[in-house]
Amino acid sequence: MSKTTIIAEPNKQEVIVHRTFEAPRELVSRMWIDPAFIPEWWGPSVMTTTVDSLEAARGGIWRFISRDPAGNEYAYNGVYHEVTLPERLVHTYEFEGIDAVALVTVTFESLPGGRTKLTETTLYPSIRIRDGALQSGMTEGMLELFDRFAALLASRT
Amino acid sequence: MSKTTIIAEPNKQEVIVHRTFEAPRELVSRMWIDPAFIPEWWGPSVMTTTVDSLEAARGGIWRFISRDPAGNEYAYNGVYHEVTLPERLVHTYEFEGIDAVALVTVTFESLPGGRTKLTETTLYPSIRIRDGALQSGMTEGMLELFDRFAALLASRT
């Protein structure tokens, strides 16, 4: 059962994802950018993800490489514009091979009972590119990613 | 006479600016990110602009401070996602005090006769924020900025 909400309104350039976790935001936000945990939750479980770079500070570069069971590699990268944990992250996002850079904002909001609402907003260069990303299976990948992250958090709390 | 074209379609989150310069793109692109020249063209001439930082490389930070005749200061900053001169720049953009980060892509295209077409696309977090920027006098500021840059280029060619 996934509790992830994905909002992609017609004719807009963004995708907004909400998910509430049963953990305080200090832990949620720290784990979100901890390179040691990325391979355990980032992307679908069928992929093997390695962290090439993750410098979680303004101007820092991140780059992840995912490998599918056939051995094909896919790489993703960006730079951090803002890292103000536990509140907020702003970074660029690029799927290597696709000539399009997106802007991602992640906010962590404390809720009563030690819970945390994560909101991830991804702003695409055009409606067409956003819609292409949505049709590429991104939605299923995101649902699984957030479930994996929630399970990992649950194992640590 | 300004030859700058500013395109801001209704209900979109972006502003696209085109300007053709009478100079080759190696010079145009190099001057565009040269901190020594920024004070001479960046922003309206009534402002005094200083470069606090300009590291033109992936992950590099830029920050400019503009001071109006009354002494009020306005600061702008961002990080570079991509610096592949003479073709392209991708960087974030933030007007300090306004909680909104935009994504800027600048391309330099060679035209016959040693001319260069510059295209700057600024992607805002929302239509509302884009429209607010447009209504704040940004358009006039941009027209002047591109005229100043063209005049500076002309003085160097």
From TrEMBL, chains A, B:
SUPFAM superfamilies: Bet v1-like (SSF55961). Belongs to the AHA1 family. CDD domains: SRPBCC_CalC_Aha1-like_9. InterPro entries: ASHA1/2-like_C (IPR013538), START-like_dom_sf (IPR023393). Coiled coil: none annotated. It comes from the Bacteria. This is SRPBCC family protein. Residues 23-153 form the Activator of Hsp90 ATPase homologue 1/2-like C-terminal domain. The lineage of its organism: Bacteria, Bacillati, Bacillota, Bacilli, Bacillales.
